[in-house]
Amino acid sequence: MSDITNSMKHKINHFFSFKFVLSLIVILVSGYNPVDLYANPTWYIIGKGSMVGNNNPPGNFYRYAPSGVQYGATDKAFYWCGNRVSNVVRDHIIARTNNNQVWGPESVALCPGKQTGASCQIGNDLRYTRWDGEHVCDPEVIAGNYKMDGISYGYAMLYMGAMKKKQPLACTTTSQCTSPYYCESGQCVVDQGAVGVAFSNDPLTGPWIKYPKPLIAYNQAKAIGSWGVGQPSGTHVSDGLILLFYTQGYGEISGDGVWRRVVDLSNFSSSLAPTTSGPPAATKGPILDYHTINQTTLRPLRLNTIGLTNTVNGSPLARHDLRNVSFAYHGDTDAFFIFRDGEAKFGDPSSAKSQVAWIPASYIWSGGAQPPWNVLLTIDGAVAGGSPTPTGISNGGVQRDIYGGFYDQSWLEVFPSRVLGAPPQSIYTFRMNTIHGPLNY
User: Residue 18 region, left (φ>0) first, then alpha (ψ -120 to 50), else beta?
Assistant: First the structure.
């Protein structure tokens, strides 16, 4: 059994706690200004190269969308997206440990399509038909008490899965395709995203067992060719209950952006689709939008963006432009921190800047009158670390403990993915770095 498994004794932060209620009373009675909650942290750029080093074999490979889990004073696990075959853009979820600054070997945690141990089913018969048959990416690992088909698991991995949709249109360049389709191998295609989950009792060595259906499915009723949903993040609430966040991107001003849901994975059947009919039971699929502790429905919440700014022009950020957000819960102050992609510099996936911000947890739960987000830092791609100097950053994460909270309440660390130049040629330059510093409050 790994050290990360043993570390499950680490403190769990329950959001609906006495401390949570008391903190709200103090804020309301005292007129406390949440802007004063945190001082501007001092940040340090680590190293002049990739966070994990360039351990790739010769050829064209990429590494991006990191998720860091700290489970000991000097022990961390990382998960990210990477390709397995040179010049083939097909995301797999890669795992690697860092123990006292020494990196362990790289391994495949999750494969697109059929999951068979550490191998991947890449035959065309499955590639375009399974909901996650083309890509698996954007991992976040959360400890808890989960049960699927009567088997208990200690860890869940949220991830984005995608299948490839083909448009019956020949092409030689992407400009000949209808947005968001792009040209690949002479045909216009697009990846349709959904949110999935897999389970394990050892998050370092696996195996990871997929729930074979998406938790949040691609909505086929939306405009054909739209991106869908993905980029999940989550925090542990209680037992198998997870507070789930994800990005929606159907090209709709009225519905795109980041959504908050709850999902109960404490006891369910893998043969059944998710349902909103709680409470959980072995005769049902995963339960969405049902708060097990309160035994009430918790409606989906599309997050507001008050206080967030467009990183390109400084204007207020529109709700439909909020995307690719990693969340971490700060228990000492009952707040959620985010690390989010800024607005595109070259077009997806590269941005000029990223932002770190926080908000009181009360809004995330209630969805009522929203206080503003408080921006701690805007990170420019030019100072995100690495040599040569990167031109953009994208798909980052916040370092978390195994439950999705802060391991050290006074230390904040984020992991931007840096990129050189403009896509699509730049995709093989994606590497990861770390920026961290003390959090004063």
Answer: alpha
pLDDT beneath 70: ranges in the chain: 1-57, 114-129, 223-225, 345-350, 381-391, 421-425
Q: What is the pLDDT of residues 208-244, one digit of tens each?
A: 999 999 999 998 887 666 789 999 999 999 999 999 9
Q: Supply the pTM of this predicted model.
A: 0.87
The tens digit of pLDDT for each residue in 243-264 reads 999 999 988 888 999 999 999 9
Cβ–Cβ under 8 Å, residues 176 and 184: no
Closest of 91, 74, 78, 41 to residue 415, by C-alpha: 78
Q: Whose CA is closest to 233, among 322, 108, 362, 314?
A: 322
Q: In angstroms, rounded to a whole number, what is the distance separating the alpha carbons of residues 305 and 132?
A: 30
- Asked, as a colleague might, if the bond just before 207 is cis with ω within 30 of 0, I would say yes
Q: Please, are residues 420 and 426 in contact by the beta-carbon 8 Å criterion? A: yes
DSSP string over 311-327: TTT-PBPPGGG--SEEE
CA-based Rg of the chain, rounded to a whole angstrom? 21
Q: Where are the beta strands (DSSP E) in 2-74?
A: 44-45, 63-70
Cα–Cα dist 281/296, whole Å: 16
Q: Which residues contact 105 (CB under 8 A, 6 or more apart)?
A: 96
Contacts of 328 (CB under 8 A, 6+ apart): 235, 336, 337, 338, 398, 399, 400, 404, 405, 406
d(CA 74, CA 97): 11
Is 256:271 a contact under the CB 8 Å cutoff?
no
